[in-house]
Design a protein that fits this description.
By secondary structure, the protein is α+β, with helices and mostly antiparallel strands. The chain has one domain. The strands form 2 sheets. The protein has a two-stranded parallel sheet. A two-stranded antiparallel ribbon has the order 3-4. α1 links the parallel β1 and β2. The longest helix is centred in the middle third of the chain and has 17 residues. The chain is globular, with a radius of gyration of 18 Å.
């Protein structure tokens, strides 16, 4: 962030409804207050949203859940058109869900940022 002031400020969105939201606000504030003065403008706001009304949050949640499932060993299945869903052992499978792959790189993030303005 320090080398990219054109991308300042960084705003953070967390999922609403968690019992530790107050701690997240406190830690965010402490971190923001600890920044050197020249970097203080690099950190913007902390906000809370639901996955229903914040698509990037839903995407991040989906990625985190997929990583959890792979780590737990639930990445193999017999139907190539099936996608694992739900926290189950063995996992549930849903077939014929349309999936797409998006490469997340600097250009993709810039396009997403520009699309949200």
């Amino acid at each position: 962030m320090k080398d990219r002031p054109e991308d300042w400020p960084l705003n953070v969105v967390l999922e609403t409804g968690h019992k530790n939201a107050g701690d997240a606000i406190r830690v965010f504030g402490e971190f923001r207050d600890s920044l050197h003065p020249e970097y203080a403008p690099s950190l913007g706001k902390l906000d809370f949203a639901s996955k229903d009304n914040c698509l990037p949050l839903a995407m991040a949640d989906s990625l985190a859940y997929a990583i959890f499932r792979m780590t737990a060993g639930f990445s193999q299945h017999s139907d190539p058109n099936a996608a694992p869903v739900g926290p189950a052992d063995p996992p549930y499978y849903v077939s014929k869900i349309p999936l797409s792959r998006t490469l997340i790189d600097e250009d993709t993030l810039a396009a997403l940022r520009d699309g949200l303005r």
